[in-house]
Design a protein that fits this description.
four-stranded antiparallel sheet; Neuraminidase; Laminin; single chain; 2 helices
């Protein structure tokens, strides 16, 4: 799982794809042909501890799981978040639960990992909630050891083979794949602001 990028493609044929961080080795991981109806996967998240891929099925508001340790296994419906709504994005805290944004009613739904417990809902009174990312050492693990001594001039990221050097906007790698020179190939990194803070001592997150 390390060094891969996962995304969903919604259209005439819904599917979930995967590639390396360099955009190579693009493959279809899940689609309607291999596993039947996978719904409308509007958002993905990964449990890095157990290598479980989750997606949010916007067609019936279900959270669905897929075991990346056994890619021959079938996806499994976990829980229906709401009976109606416009669920757009979600993320997971492996120690707490799922956080789901609902653009229809401006809500943030909190789904405990213990699926026997009820889903909790917070009304988001500011703007319509769109994307959400839960920041933690578990979800964004640091792998500095992979890049120590790699000799990358600018960026270094994990890769299925170990690590890989990248360049920022306006540069391209030389043949040694470590140094760079001005060019027209680039990678764009998007930064997203966290809009709430989770305190383990409380049942609900503190909105900021």
């Amino acid at each position: 799982m390390t060094g891969y990028l996962y995304w969903s493609d919604i259209g005439r044929k819904n599917k979930i794809e995967r590639s390396t961080l360099a955009g190579e080795g693009r493959t279809v991981l899940l689609d309607e042909n291999s596993f039947g109806l996978i719904g409308r996967p509007t958002a993905l998240t990964i449990d890095h501890q157990d290598n479980i891929l989750y997606w949010l099925d916007n067609s019936d508001s279900y959270i669905v799981s897929f075991d990346l340790n056994d890619e021959r296994a079938y996806p499994r419906d976990l829980k229906q978040v709401v009976t109606s709504g416009d669920l757009f994005s979600f993320d997971i805290d492996p120690e707490f639960g799922f956080f789901v944004t609902d653009r229809q009613d401006n809500n943030l739904h909190i789904v405990p990992l213990d699926l026997r417990k009820a889903t909790q809902t917070i009304f988001w009174q500011h703007e319509v909630p769109h994307g959400i990312i839960f920041h933690s050492d578990i979800n964004q693990p640091k792998e500095s050891a992979l890049c120590e001594g790699a000799g990358c001039d600018q960026l270094c990221a994990s890769d299925p083979a170990g690590y890989r050097c990248f360049c920022t906007y306006g540069y391209q790698l030389n043949n040694d794949e470590k140094t760079y020179e001005p060019g027209n190939r680039f990678i764009i990194i998007d930064y997203i602001t966290v809009f709430f803070q989770l305190k383990k001592s409380e049942e609900l997150p503190t909105l900021r």
